[in-house]
Structure formats: C-alpha cells, structure tokens
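Dear U.,

Please find below the material for section 3 of the report. The protein was modelled together with zinc ion; I have listed the sequence and SMILES used, followed by the predicted complex structure.
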Amino acid sequence: MLYIEERKEIVEMGKKMLNSALTIGTWGNISLLLDNKEFFGITPSGMDYNQLTPEDIVIMDLAGNIVDGKKKPSIESPLHYTIYRERKDIKAVVHTHSIYASAMAAARKPIPAAVEDLAQIVGGSVRVAEYYLPGTEELGKAVVDALQDRYGALLANHGVVGIGRSLQEAMTVCEIIEKGARITIAAQGVGGVVELEQEDIDFMRNFFLNSYGQDN
Ligand SMILES: [Zn+2]
C-alpha cells in the first residue's frame, strides 16, 4: 500500500476527533498533504471513524483525481484540494460540525478574537465564508477567501474548517474555534465579548508561528 504512514496518521486523527466530541457519527473529514505536495490523503465518504483502516484512506491529486484507494473520497474533497491549491503554507485540513461553532455559522456571525488562544492559533477573528452547497468547488473558494491570514473559518449554515502545518495543528484549530464559539455565546449574557486590539493579536500570532508549535 502507498503512503502507509500518512494513511495511518489520518486514521488516528479521525479516531481522536470522534473521541473529542467535535463531531458525531460520520460527519466531518480530515486530509493530509503528502511530501510531494501534489497528492493528499483524505477520509472516505460516509464511514464510521471507529471502523476506519489505513486502506480506506483515499489518495487524490490537487485536481481532484483519485490516485489510489478503493473507497469513494469524502464528498467535501473539493473543499480540501481547493485549500491546498491556494494555501502553500499548510499541510492539513480538518472539517467538523461541532455544535457551538455551527451555531455561530448558522447565525452567520464571525467569532471575535477575544481570547489569547484563538488569537494565537487562528490569527484573528474567525470569518464566515459565503454560503455555497456542500461538496462544491465554489464552497472551497469562498472558504479560501475567509481563511486569508487565518488558520480557521466558519462555513455559513454548515460548520468549521481548520488548517495547519500538521494534522494535530489543524485539529487544535477546530478545538479552539469551538471553545471560542462557546465563550462568545456565553458572554452574550454579560454584554458580549470585547475583541482584542489587532496589534496585540498580531504579536501573539507571530509568537505562536515562530516560537513553538512548529512542524517541519
Ligand atoms: Zn460538512
């Protein structure tokens, strides 16, 4: 089997995502760019992550062709390859339907950068990408726009995308966005969050990108 290590890594992260309660059942999908930067591995369509084996991971190119694998790739594969085409600074994409972030996405409200971890790992407020149907390249392009200078975005009436220099980093982005959404909603009861100054966000972001969490 080709790319066994990368396939194993995706399967492990899928199980981790399931246990983290970021997602329920077969919703959500995960991909990892391979070292040649031309192919990526992605979770298959509609499979329970607990049943997933490395053989189930589908290898695709950035044009959306299947390179290796017997299963059908996730319906959201256009979202993944559209991001890889445009974002040369990252290696992994995680897409989830976690509850509080999806609530913000359904309300089409960005998550302000009001706490330190969100500022550091996302790089600013989490924008809402324009609505397009799931599984379309248009959705992918709208998400790329919303991801400008960020590691995460909301998909209107849908869910979350986190990207990163490693699978773990992209997963952490999704977790921190879910936490940021919970805080934003909870703070409504005491008058709403106060967003950090851009200067302070940039300082924390640069510290995060350059001082730790590097994955080369
Ligand atoms: Zn989805």
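For the text of the report, you could mention the following: The pocket of zinc ion is lined by residues 76, 95, 97, 134, 158-159 (CB under 6 Å).

Regards,
Y.
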